[in-house]
Amino acid sequence: MVRSPGFEPGSSAWEADVLAKLDYDRNATVDSKRNNLNLYPYSSKRKTGKMKTAKPGTYFWQGNEACAEGAISAGCHFFAGYPITPASEIAEHMAKRLPLLGGIVIQMEDELASIGSVIGASWTGNKAMTATSGPGFSLMQESIGYAFITETPCVIVDVQRAGPSTGQATKCGQGDVMQARWGTHGDYSAIVLSPNSVQEMFQLTARAFNLAEQYRTPVILLSDEITAHMREQIAVPPLESMNIINRRKPKPGEKAFFGGEEVPPMPAVGEGFNVAVTGSTHDEFGIRATADPTVHRKLVERLNNKIQNHTDEIVESEEYGTDDCEIAIVSYGCTSRSVYEAVENARKEGIKVGYVRLKTLWPFSDKIIEKLAKTARTIIVPEMNLKQIYYEVQRAAKGSARTISINKIGGGELITPEELLAKVEEAHKSD
Amino acid sequence: MTEPFTVKNYLRDLKLPFCPGCGAHTVMNTFLKAVHELGHADLKEFIFCSGIGCSAWIPSPYFLADSVHTLHGRSIPVATGIKLLRPDHNVVVFGGDGDIVGIGLSHFIHAARRNLDVLVIMVNNMIYGMTGGQVAPTTPFKTKTTTTPYGSFEYPLDAAKLAAAAGASYVARWTTVHQNDLKQSIKKAIGMQGFRFIEVTSQCPTAFGRRAGFKDAGEMIRWFRENAVSVEEAKELGEEDVSSKIVVGEYAEKKRPTLVETIRQSIKEAQRQNAQS
Questions:
Q1: Pairing mode, if any, of strands B66-69 and B46-50?
Q2: Does residue B2 form part of some domain?
Q3: Residues in chain A with pLDDT < 70?
Q4: Quick one: pLDDT at residue A42?
Q5: Is residue A279 part of a domain?
Q6: For residue B21, what pLDDT is reported?
Q7: What's the whole-number average pLDDT of chain B?
Q8: Domain count across chain B
Q9: Residue B76: which of B57, B103, B51 has the closest Cα?
């Protein structure tokens, strides 16, 4: 867990803070039966053996390992991937762990096949995930659109590196923010989460599954090389107290699996529902309608609205000092780790600085920025790309606050707390 | 098999999309006949996958069954995910030559290598039909298509040979003329495990025949009949003679561990090793 101002990592205050932030009921009793049911609802035919998800407690894990464990805790039963730096450890860790729970891990021939088999796995009623980095993420874009239009829940992890193209394969970047939002063709909406610690690699992966199941849509965990490769302490909550969401299944006789309501129930193949899944425009029964303008409008508008209309529920953020700040820093992912120290030091100098850290990038919450722009005179947006979220912030601020960007790319160099502080001081002087 | 065969028992009440004379009708009919003769009164024990192209429409959405109509070329990966988690069902992939051995070729080879337990029925019309007749990886040399108006300058791919070489459990090729052989082949393949591949050379009078110099579907079918030689007969012919023929028959039939089996074993082994440690 990243330290919040005033906490030393590893201290008892830190641990209390970590535990307080975890979403679980500490008084819950262990009910292993219910647990089994929640985790692997569709694997009754297979022996899942003893529950071997990570025991509650504190661990010293790598971000990618925490991501894999988060997926396992959320009930992921199928993983397919293709080797790519800096995401390979997720596949490696899944390969080690998932078979012990009766799950399947397969290395496919490329990223197109990886996400394809994940989509197939999801239609069998199981939770499935793939993990990749920029180049592989690009290859997956067509299928992400397919998962969106067919309403196939699945999780895609993109551990960002410095692009475009092969770029600097082992170095950190944040250049996939817009690809995560707009990568596939056509009108669509994405849910994209941005972890900034090993703790969040665990928790936001689990949340990504929850959102995917709840909204029947692909969800992207947009991590980065720094967050994925660093090791730090993490607290794992008791499994039975984690809030795990499973997709709604149709009742016998139900036939509208692709419409009729905001998020229709999802059948599994092989259960006698005769479900017709297609990436073509289709009516609520899944039957292709490739010429009727109203069917297309109805479908595509519902698919977008089911995400956009729930922006407030989907969006999570962390704030500090935003009640009285004159200068605010809006950040996400690894970049936000420098922000904590910069804010602490600026406050010591008597500059009223606050921060907003976006844990959900898409859908973008205009509200958060609008509110912030009412307090802060200046909003600073540090990013390891060339202004991808900056323009969103500028747009949402609607001129109520001045927006300044700090951009640093290449070599995996983070924007340092000193660089941030210098920018804050500069902004303070010119205010 | 008490009820007489009628395709209506297996189809949704929808109008079929195929052109008059299209070979997809024959493939659809023959497949359903085979299923019927195996004693299936419905398609509950099957899950269908297809990609993009005319042949992908054979199961989707017309079969009254679970069907996943995927992206162009990605039917086999999706079928992989489905089969590994629903091993109790027959997973059948329908696709055209462009879908299976054009854009989706690497999945095809790797599925054969893994011996993935799916039956792939490839309707080879030697052309990209749905998009209007562009050259395909299976188009015969020197054939005129919309993107090779002066004749194709590439040699076609032999998908059956490729599947056999890559390790498929069962491989056969027939044409739409060989309906009985095709039916028997489908029945046999459904009863087998592992990667099974059946190629059906099929007529596309609209996008292939028209430019390649065939008057109608009937003329194309006659061409199939006159040019088809068996695998055995082909062995007697020289390479050049064979290249102008359609070699029909069974290319491979063997038993080797399938992907479902090997994955299950590896999971067991993982759990055993873990229990020991």
A1: parallel
A2: no
A3: 1-52
A4: 30
A5: no
A6: 97
A7: 96
A8: 1
A9: B51
Q: What pLDDT score was predicted for residue A12?
A: 59
Phi/psi of residue A15, nearest 5 degrees: -65, -40
ipTM reported for the complex, 2 dp: 0.97
Domain limits at B105? 7-276
B112-155 pLDDT tens trace? 999 999 999 999 999 999 999 999 999 999 999 999 999 999 99
User: Is B130 part of any domain?
Assistant: yes
pLDDT value for B271: 87
Residue A29: its pLDDT value, please?
Answer: 35
Which residues of B are less than 8 Å from A124 in CB distance?
81-82, 85-86
The closest of A193, A216, A206 to A122, measured between CA atoms, is A216
Q: Are residues A235 and A321 in the same domain?
A: no
The closest of A334, A363, A336, A352 to A424, measured between CA atoms, is A352
Integer Cα distance of A340 and A329 in angstroms: 10
The CATH number of the domain holding residue A97 is 3.40.50.970
State which residue of chain A sits closest to B74, comparing Cα positions.
A116
Boundary (domain end) residue, out of A192, A216, A241? A241
**What CATH number is associated with residue B51?**
3.40.50.970
Question: Mutation test of the interface with chain B: which of A269, A271, A283, A284, choosing the one with the most B Cβ atoms within 10 A?
Answer: A269
d(CA A150, CA A407): 37
Phi-psi region of A242 (alpha: psi -120 to 50; beta: other; left: phi over 0): beta
Range of the domain at A64: 12-241
Please identify, among A178, A209, A241, the residue that sits at the C-terminal boundary of a domain. A241
pLDDT for the residue numbered A331: 98
Determine whether the interchain pair A126/B89 forms a contact, defined as Cβ–Cβ distance below 8 Å.
no
How buried is A127 (Cβ within 10 angstroms: 0-12 exposed, 13-18 middle, 19+ buried)? buried
Beta bridge partners of A331: A357
Any idea what the Cα angle at residue A24 is, between residues A7 and A211, rounded to 5°?
105
Instruction: Answer whether residue B256 shows pLDDT above 60.
Output: yes
B61 → closest Cβ in A52, A116, A278: A278
Strand ranges in A206-362 using DSSP code E only, listed in sequence order: 218-224, 231-236, 276-278, 317-320, 327-331, 353-358, 360-362
Say which residue the tokens 């854009």 belong to. Answer: B103
